[in-house]
Fold each of these.
Amino acid sequence: MNINRENYEEYLFDYLEGNLSAEQAAEVKKQIDADPFLQAELKAFEQTVLKPAEDVIFPNKEALLKKDENRKIIPLYYYIATGVAAAIAILAIVYLPKGDMEQPTHLATNPTTDTLINTPSDRSATEEDFIKEEAIGTETQLTDVNSTTSKEKDNTLEDKQNEATGKTPVNNKLEPIYADMIEYNLREGELEVTNRIAFILPVTPENTAINDSSTDDKGGDADTYTMNRFRLKQELFDGVGSIFANIKKPKLTLFTHDDQGNRKWRMVFQYDTYSAIIRVR
Amino acid sequence: MNTEQYNNCVKIYADGLFRFIVKNLRDDYEAENVVQNTFEKLWMKHENVDYEKAKAYLFTSAYNNMIDTIRKNKRIVELEAAKEPALPANEYTGVTEILNKLVNKLPENQRSALLLRDYEGYSYDEIAEITGQTAAQVKVNIFRARVTLKKQLGSMEAMI
């Protein structure tokens, strides 16, 4: 093997690329060590080796992931609807036998939170489905949006009549169900509700991408976040709110509040085709 | 390949695939499209693709998609290349940055072969399979790319 000024590039290239046998590589190395020109040329060749830019990453990897159709995933709304039904059943046991009575304070209809009950125009089909789920578990609940509206109208009229007569209003209207705290775990893209009485989120603004931010027709903010396989749509009405989340932690907790420190908004969680509404007092 | 294996492919290869494509196309949006299309194609055929061969499938598919994109945008790319100013030495902060600029100026076949070699550690045979060339052609392309870069880096460093 004779490396000269005519053929040195081929030898250095093969040496750099690992194309030589151990014996050939040792021979080339020997000649490089003995020749400063070859040493400089090898160094120059080594500089042509590209290093992957680790900071360049595909920005929307989660969108490429697919749901395993063979795995049984229990929809979030099932957990919530079940929890809601259980809560209503307990409340019914506690309060209903007393007949006409004052509305329990912790479920008192808040004029602000009343706005959280959507009009049909801004309610998606999946949200309606969830409302229907609630209705299945609780006969006192509304079966659809239109009936909500009509019942509320009736109640408003009734309230006025009661006010005029000095009677305590009968608690027969739809009560928004408030989930004070919702806690769930993200496990390999699967949403698992571990405790429905909990507060939702780690989602800090720094590590949560707001994919869509808009103002709805009520003047509230609506931010849509995409986290792993599910979308969290946060709708805030009549107040300034903030959202805190940390999607890097397996446990996801979320809470919101307005500028008065009151939590009075609704969140819609969408997980694939499933959807759930969580109203936070 | 099952769904879990497909999802593993996304987690393991999406970034590398994106780096390879974006370095060639120099357009994030186009590169994202190529990567998305490639994974969609893999998903459609995932039941017929072996998990062990998924990486080669992805890079081959992405490469072909990228070539189509380059051809489609050839006129635009040429116009942009014509507008690109010469490399003024005083703008650079290091060899890596100069190298990245110089790589962009390599012919596509040399650039792709070099990127697959250095970014992904592919053998000449594997690169040949992806790019549809022979292993000998791939080796020549990488050799020419390195010699060109070596000379240009040398001259740039001399200017600095």
Amino acid sequence: MQKVGPPAAAVFPGVLLHGAGHWAAGDASTGRTLFLLEGAGLGSTLGGIIVLAASGASKRLVAPAAVMMIGGAGLFITTWLADVYGSATGGARGEDVATGAPLTEIPAVETSLGYRYVYDPTFAYRSFVTTSLDVRFGPLRLRPEGWFSTSHANERLRLLGAYRLSGPRPLSLDGRSVATPPVDGSFVDVETSVTRHAYPPERFTISSLEVGFAGRLDLRRMARSLRGSFVDAGLGYGVANNTYALEGAPSEVTDQLLARFGFGLYLGHPRPGGVYGETSIFYDHRHDGYAGGLKMSGLGSGVPGSFGARGLVWLGDDFGVSADAQAGSAAVLGLSIIVRQRATGVRP
Amino acid sequence: MKRLFAMLAVCLIPSCLDVADDRADRDERVGHAKNAVMDVDVDDGLACIRNIATGELRVRATAPLPRVHVTVKDGATSLLFVVDAALSDATLEARVPNGSTLNVVEEPGERPTQKRWRIAVPQTRAIDLAIRAPDEAKPGPFRFAVLADVQEAIDGVQKIFGRLNEEPDVRFLVFTGDLTQQGTREQLERFERESHTLRMPLYATVGNHELGTSDLPYHEIFGRGSYHFRFRGVDFTLLDDASATLAPKVYDWLDGWLAAGRSNVHVLAMHIPALDPTGTRNGGFASRGEASKLLAKLGAGRVDLTLYGHVHSYYAFENAGIPAYISGGGGSIPERFDGIGRHFLVVDVDPGANRVTSVGMVRVD
């Protein structure tokens, strides 16, 4: 009962009263923190809804209202998942357990090659080869990536540039740390990207420029019971130029709010030659790309973004496998193999 | 891995990717009925069958000039053909298929947009009915109005309809969705009753607020969500994009309608704009890629005007080079700080000159 009670309490009444699992396990402090954060999330979401409703989704207020709603929903969902996690692992009862730990020094170079299946009922493409190169120089990161349809002339090329304000960085090429190693996997990046998504059979191309922040908070910073779990978040703004391969058709500029949140777990403890990784579930508010926004039966179709899950497992020092799934306007499923320059993430 | 795949499945469940397919299937069934009394087929589904009884057929038109094929199977000697949402000056041409003209007697309708005609049932029992308009072959300019998003503001809709009735020479009203708050039968019937005061017929498509009930009675009461008709040399295409997407079947229909209207003035109306001019609001299609696909298709098909609702304000812009208007002025929670309020559009088209002459916004309050 001692083991079953807290996770059961985290499920119910914990789904409504976040932190109930920790309370049941005797960790009232963490329970209270989760409960207060849940309240903040609910308040933010309700505030956003009120602003939207009162303003008739005014173009002047819709972006801050959406940020309030998404941020609030993120807090609401992740605090519940954190309560379930801490209660289920035994951390809330004070046991020294965690599903895993982060890499505190990350690879300088990663390359990936993968396959993505996209089921979108409004497009004929299905199969894609995907590839990326992720290069880090200290706090700087460059990540070119491409998706290439194997059966249709459709391709998406993206170049991401980022600057790490804080958090894990790669080792230098000679294997020495270039900075004081961080205590965990938490980070804050400022990001910018350019994307060109070409749909030749459908006669249009979407080119976009985005700026924003992305970050991760290891929840060990909040409570010992939550070691091994983390939340991800991102916020930004994108503008896109749509061009049409039609005589005399001008291009048009659109914009979108970029926001996302996720909850994840580290799987295993990094060690030389070991098997370890991480997994997460996430919400992404963007409406472009292959997943698009969420279609639903009923009134609200089109406004929410997509939901997804991803996982990454390192199978030794140089080689890993990642898998992901996303559901929005389309279902996107993928698998990639990843090769990193060396097992730089492990301190002897 | 098992846990991971379970998690993936949980994530995929909320997204039903083919959310509009069922409504496209319903569209195909509109205007076709067979029972012991009669068989009815409406060309292109441009009227929904409201009632079949011995000696009586009642339909609601979704276009000015629908054609109906009837086979009377019981012993009725005459057929009362009642058409709601008809042009007030419409006439009826009744024939034996590929044969002689039948005598038609007009009876008084209950309102300007209801026509009642009595036809003697011929020995062959089959009748072709063609609704005609006195100006249908006239090449000159004409006007139509556009309205959307009444929803919960139904109690105040008579002021809008009254203002619409004051507009001269408007042949019909195109309603681009969100007639009701939830799309229940009671709400849809209430909206239809309110629209009886209009002196012009109302042709509607589905809005997202018509999807708030699982039994979806819209098609039984108002007919197809996606359809196409031609009036006086102008092509009109209305699309059901109430789920922020189009069903694949609708894309197939659209290809044919675009080809048919390529050399004419072509007006396209639907509820949700493909792209919301305020992109951070996401009041457009769920997928920006699909939105651009549709717009490229409309551009290639030489559509002259796109009309939308959904956003409760007024926006004039261009998409893929096509003039576009959002007009959600039916009274539901208005967008604040825009100085717009309740309104509708009046569109002047000149098929002879092959162009849309003007799109004017008429304020109600």
